[in-house]
Amino acid sequence: MFITLAYIVLFLVCSWGIFRIDQKSASLSKSVFIAIFIGAVIGLSLHLIHADSSKTVIDWYSIIGNGYVNLLKLVAIPLIFISILSAINKLENSAGIGKMSLTIVGCMLFLVMTAGFVGLLTTQALGLDASAFGHMQSTLTADDVTKTASVSLPQLLTSLIPTNLFLDLTGARSVSVIGIVIFTLLAGIALLKVKKDAPEEGAKLSAAINATQVWVMKMVRIVIALTPYGVMALMAKVFSSYQIEQFASLLGFIGACYLAVLMMFIVHALLLALSGHNPVQYYKTVWPVLTFAFVSRSSAAAIPLAISAQERFGVPNTIASISASFGSSMGQNGCAGIYPAVMVAMIAPTLGIDPLSISFLAAMLPAIALGSIGVAGVGGGGTFAALIVLSTLNFPVALVGIFIAIEPVVDMARTALNVNGSMMSGVLATRMLNKSAGEPQRQTTPN
């Protein structure tokens, strides 16, 4: 009990210190960086005490960490709805909404296929082979394979269309966020028609939407201000929970995944530079978002942070909202791009297939794109994305089950890349839409 109390007091003291620093510097990124360091130190120190005491401390810390994640999920749906609706409210007509949405989705599919290619190249360069894991037992069930193999592309696309808004508001479906975005776009188009056909009623609706946006944004900023404390608690949990020796036999696979993720972050930086952006400024702006995604392993919870970061980088609110929302369930660079591609690169040589041949890439990359939609359609993250890709290529799927045990370790990096891919889609889509419209690219200096 004394140890638990001491760690609670330690957390409160550190939180007060971070609060004072935040008041002086007014920099969320700086506060988050300090919180990461403190959380890691606390988490590592918990390895030195009795296991039961360590678990009790983490249970108390989880009130802050998991509570922060829950608050972000709580404000995500109102933020998505009002942000998109408010942005459409400022449009003169609905002609550009479809083009904007298709551009964002196109950027997502391009990035996830690029991630798949990067994962393939990285694994080939490291020389990993699936035969090295043949002695391990797969934990994959027949139900997992059947559930994935039975899903077709038309079914996946149909599953994105909502049938009950209130059901999606509860998050009951794996594609609930996309369903809400689609409903909001429909509501926004209807709003523009009301403003045109019934100006008086339209003006009342417009005023109500603007007032609601101000209210919701105040609520979101309150939650975002809690980021350093939530991240510190989550980081302490991460560093206290995982024992690297438990995964010694799979370190090659873990290393390949992390290296591929790092390479994809570099590719993102190159794409930013080629599109006329400053990669250093971009990563400074999104750093708190990537940190939270890494320690929380939740793309959905990162939606409010991702929207806010894109706006600070100059992405219009509508594009930021759609890209962050869609990116929580589809086009995920880590889960649907890197992860399946690493497995494909490991299996292909054992089947006598050259994974870098043009014919094979022509089959694999569309399968990656299909899998990125499949993550939303079936749920289950990287495991089901890998199942979809391997099944599409007629590859054996047993390897997927072997890596389920270490998926949480890999998932931290995957989630950070997923969220960055969604934000990159917003940035690139903004650039493409501005260029097609002949408008100058707008950037803002991050706070």
Automatic annotation (TrEMBL):
UniProt KW Transmembrane helix keyword: yes
Main location: membrane
Keyword match Transport: yes
Coiled-coil segments: none
Pfam families noted in UniProt: SDF (PF00375)
Organism: Enterobacter lignolyticus (strain SCF1)
InterPro entries per UniProt: Na-dicarboxylate_symporter (IPR001991), Na:dicarbo_symporter_sf (IPR036458)
Membrane topology field: Multi-pass membrane protein
Protein name as catalogued: Sodium:dicarboxylate symporter
Transmembrane annotation, as ranges: 6-21, 33-51, 71-88, 100-121, 175-194, 215-235, 247-274, 286-307, 336-353, 360-378, 384-406
UniProt keyword list: Membrane, Transmembrane, Transmembrane helix, Transport
Lineage of the species this protein comes from: Bacteria, Pseudomonadati, Pseudomonadota, Gammaproteobacteria, Enterobacterales
Subcellular location: Membrane
